[in-house]
Write a structure and sequence with these properties.
This protein is of the alpha/beta class and 221 residues long. It folds into 2 domains: 83 residues, no CATH class; 129 residues, 3-Layer(aba) Sandwich (Rossmann fold). The chain is built from 9 helices and 11 strands. The strands form 3 sheets. A 5-stranded parallel beta sheet has the order 8-7-9-10-11. It has a 4-stranded mixed beta sheet with strand order 3-4-6-5, with helices on both faces. Helix 7 links the parallel strand 9 and strand 10. The longest helix is centred in the middle third of the chain and has 13 residues. The model has no long low-confidence stretch (mean pLDDT 93).
């Protein structure tokens, strides 16, 4: 099925044409897949792209898969594994902000993906609205970014505040961090989507990878 732009493995149909269409290869989502399936998918992709990503890979999965694919590298906080050639030539300037330290895992998913795909990334973590004076110290970095990712749980007000300070796109990532009435990130999602500050787009709850992908698309232009 190569002539149709995908390879049929039976349990998966690998989109080998995606890099031609989108500039980045298909990303393998580890959750729900067996080690055997992941191994077959990665091995097949390695024949068609110089960079293979696996997202949401758990540490125990990585340890087992590493035995089968020795070249596999892993970022435990981001839960991202990759093999192949990291894009060494970096471009643009993406700033990744978090409201709290508890949001960092999701932020790292975005930041690591961006670095591996050839983007300059700066991180500023734990500058949420409970101590908004912290944000002012990093204003120079904020206003000089080409695109900003804001990762926040609770009420997620940080995205609106940051958007009100800049003229560049802001990507909001609501997280599932918070107490009962946060409804596992739904409150943060609605807070970001209802922002009165124009220029914000919002990805799904805990979707750091989606934010990183979109930031990459903006940053490369």
């Amino acid at each position: 099925m190569k002539e149709k732009g995908f390879i049929d493995l039976g349990f998966a149909k690998l989109d080998i044409d995606r890099e031609n269409r989108r500039g980045l290869p298909e990303i393998v989502y580890a959750s729900g897949k067996t080690i055997s399936q992941l191994k077959k998918i990665v091995e097949e992709f390695r024949g068609h792209t110089d960079l293979v990503f696996i997202s949401r890979l758990l540490p125990n999965q990585y340890k087992t898969l590493k035995k089968e694919i020795p070249s596999l590298k892993y970022f435990s906080q981001a839960k991202i594994a990759f093999c192949g050639k990291e894009r060494k030539q970096k471009q643009g300037n993406v700033l990744v902000l978090t409201a709290g330290t508890s949001d960092v895992n999701v932020a790292e998913e975005a930041a690591v993906f961006l670095e591996l795909t050839g983007n300059n990334v700066e991180r500023v973590y734990d500058v949420g609205v409970a101590g908004i004076h912290r944000l002012d110290f990093f204003k120079k970095k904020i206003v000089s970014a080409k695109v900003i990712i804001v990762v926040a749980g609770m009420e997620a007000a940080l995205a609106s505040i940051v958007s009100g300070l800049v003229a560049v796109p802001v990507i909001g990532v609501p997280t599932s961090v918070g107490y009962g009435a946060s409804f596992k990130g739904v409150a943060a999602l609605l807070g970001m989507m209802n922002s009165c500050s124009p220029g914000i787009t919002v990805v799904n709850i805990d979707n750091g990878l989606g934010a990183g992908y979109f930031a990459h698309m903006i940053n490369k232009w």
